Amino acid sequence: MTTASKIDCDVKDLGLADTGKLRIEWADQFMPTLGIIRKRFSKERPLAGVRISACLHVTTETANLAITLQQGGAQVALCASNPLSTQNDAAASLVQDFGIPVFAIKGENHDTYYSHLEAALQHRPQFTMDDGADLVTLAHTQQKELAKGIIGGTEETTTGVIRLRSMADQGVLQYPIIAVNDANTKHLFDNRYGTGQSTMDGILRATNILVAGSTLVVAGYGWCGRGIAMRAHGLGAHVIVTEINPTRALEAVMDGYRVMSLEDAAPLGDVFITATGNKNVIRREHFEKMKDGALVANSGHFNVEIEIPALEHIASNRRKIREFVEEFRLPDGRRIYLLAEGRLVNLSSAEGHPAVVMDMSFANQALCIEHLTKNAARLEKKVYSVPEEIDQTVAQIKLGAMGIRIDHLTPEQEKYLASWSEGT
């Protein structure tokens, strides 16, 4: 094993490695799907000699993915996909105990964040793994020569997939990328159950408020918004959903929530959570209508969903009142509290998604990288869905690990479903 002193890295403190290793082991026991893939990878070495640069949230779950890729033979470099999402002890352990170059420090500033992206790209990857498409974007703008050597990549977030499809539509995407986010075994579980639980966890850790009896506004009713609304309702909140999509708005109504415009919800909410993937969802006109003491949080990938400059502009003063809570006092005396600098609250003030759901997301990542090593040369420069066989394989492994058996079609049923002659 390469000693940590010889590994190019930038982490908070290598002295945190012992704690990080224990936490990585704890997460691993809740990730049996990835564990089964790791066992196969260690025997078959399907990624032997492959260079991968990953821009992901540096957590204990991500650590287990990086270790799995390494066991498969890959040379992995890892940087953070958000300035506040890094778990410093996990980053230290990856360097110290596993010899994986990591460039990530919780609380890093803008310049350091981008220097870490550049450091990961200096690994000269053949494949990228992204969480928000920052690494891909940098490779296509400031590191164009490096982009020429990249064969393929994966993307894990709704936000990132939106960016990449825009690049593909404009004809600037230089290599094929698989949208891991769109796998059923990712967005139906990670986005819904993971985001729902971890977002409420982040808000509670940051504020210690009582959710029961409060009015909680969820902006966006995609799979992340669905999960947040479900968990908030389960904690006793009166949930309001805001949407721009009429079908999703109708779904929210049928699911039992109040649905209205954000303008109408602004004076009613005690807590506001954005989960849209878009920018300036909560704006000045909304702040001006909010009640005294309103809490505003974001669960989307980037800190653009809340128009923070507008809040700063209308505030007469501001102060940090808790570790992840900043108070903005308006001229009329009302106070609005911004959580975690408007960054994704579940990872900034808590630990992110539980390992049980990340197990499936990262199993998809690992298998999609294996798929790309075999097929990237034949693929066009566009965004692809996760192959159905990979999605189904992840679900089957997960069910098996949970000790759950399901039914299978009989030959008669298969014949019936393939025919058209039988009727009434």
Give me the Rg, rounded.
22 Å
CATH class of the largest domain: Alpha Beta
Indicate the CATH architecture of the largest domain: 3-Layer(aba) Sandwich
CATH homologous superfamily assignment of the largest domain: Adenosylhomocysteinase-like
Low-confidence parts: none
The separation of the N and C termini measures 68 Å
Number of helices: 18
What would the average pLDDT be, to the nearest integer? 96
State the secondary-structure class.
alpha/beta
Profile the largest sheet. Answer: 8 strands, mixed
CATH topology tier name of the largest domain: Rossmann fold
Q: Which key terms come to mind for this protein?
A:
alpha/beta, eight-stranded mixed beta sheet, Rossmann fold, 15 strands, 424 residues, seven-stranded parallel beta sheet, 18 helices
Any overview of this molecule?
The protein has 424 residues and is an alpha/beta fold. The protein folds into 2 domains: 4-186 and 353-401, Rossmann fold; 193-348, NAD(P)-binding Rossmann-like Domain (Rossmann fold, 3-Layer(aba) Sandwich). The chain has 18 helices and 15 strands. Helix 1 packs across helix 4 (88-98), helix 5 packs across helix 6 and helix 9 (184-207) crosses helix 16 (355-375). The longest helix is centred in the middle third of the chain and has 24 residues, at 184-207. It is globular, with a radius of gyration of 22 Å.
Summarize the topology:
Elements: H1 17-28, H2 32-44, E1 51-56, H3 60-71, E2 75-80, H4 88-98, E3 102-103, H5 110-121, E4 127-130, H6 134-141, H7 144-147, E5 152-155, H8 158-169, E6 177-179, H9 184-207, E7 215-219, H10 223-234, E8 238-242, H11 246-254, E9 258-259, H12 262-265, E10 271-274, H13 284-287, E11 294-298, H14 308-314, E12 317-322, E13 325-329, E14 335-339, H15 345-348, H16 355-375, E15 383-385, H17 388-401, H18 411-418
Parallel strand pairs: 1-2, 1-4, 2-3, 4-5, 5-6, 6-15, 7-8, 7-10, 8-9, 10-11, 11-14
Antiparallel strand pairs: 12-13, 13-14
